[in-house]
Amino acid sequence: MARHDLVIRRRTSIAQRLPDTYQEKLLAFKKHVLKLRKTHNYTMGAIGNVDKTPVFFEMPGESTVNKAGEKTVHVRTAGGEMQRCTVMLGITADGNKLPPFVIFKRKTLPKEKLPPGILVRVQEKGWMTEELYLDWLKSVWFRRPGALLRQRSMLVVDSFRSHLTENVKVKMRQEKSDMVVIPGGMTGMLQPLDVSINRPFKSHLRRFYRDWRCGSTEMTPTGRLKKPSLSQMCEWIVAAWNTIPEEMVSKSFKVTSISNAMDGTEDDAVWLTSPDSETSSESDIDSNESSDEQ
């Protein structure tokens, strides 16, 4: 590669030519956001984005160090690679991070003491439902800093069905909050959390898990390694969320053309490198993980 002046390049979507239908969706989305902002003159703290992402209880890496030549490489886990919870993350264009909203797959709330700064709910399948989304709106979005002033706000969401029910629309109208829906298939370009935040968030989670697994020797009565507890998972989620800098959060709205200056002076922000490019260097993180499989 050096002899032929070749380098490894990462695939991107923003620099590639989009199909005409996607370009039309992109342009329509930007026009709609700009129209709402000019009409209601939102403050940066009243422009938000919410997204759900799965978090697995065990996050072993895809690679490890082993002796050369061995055909089988063992990675020790407690067998909980498929056990997960759903984490609802919310941010605002002024850089504020809203408390994580975690949904565990169980019927009753955990009795163990949980860390502050996180909201925990349960659901039999660990999925986001209309009821839980209304709970998130009431407990997080309508209680964010400045929300009690009852100023008009704008929330950017993806097209997941629980976000678009009639009950949700009624609640949003009652609270003077405008809902902007990202066109299907374009969350990778237009959703701030998906573009810039989810990847470094999971990178930090994976690091906390690795540090814990390296130092944990606790075993179950049957001789298996112990899985992380619910309280331990919550501590990692809070710590990983606190690690995300405010500058990255506010910049994520600019690279998705949501909070750019309305006079056009920041239109080139969409070409800036994504804020997570330096933070998320781990290649084994799937940045497109989503619980939309529900």
UniProtKB/TrEMBL annotation:
InterPro entries, sorted: CenT-Element_Derived, DDE_SF_endonuclease_dom
Annotated protein name in UniProt: DDE-1 domain-containing protein
Compositional bias ranges of the Acidic residues kind: 279-294
Domain annotation DDE-1: ranges: 83-253
Superkingdom: Eukaryota
Region (Disordered): 264-294
Gene Ontology, cellular component aspect: nucleus
One Gene Ontology molecular-function label: DNA binding
Transmembrane segment boundaries: none
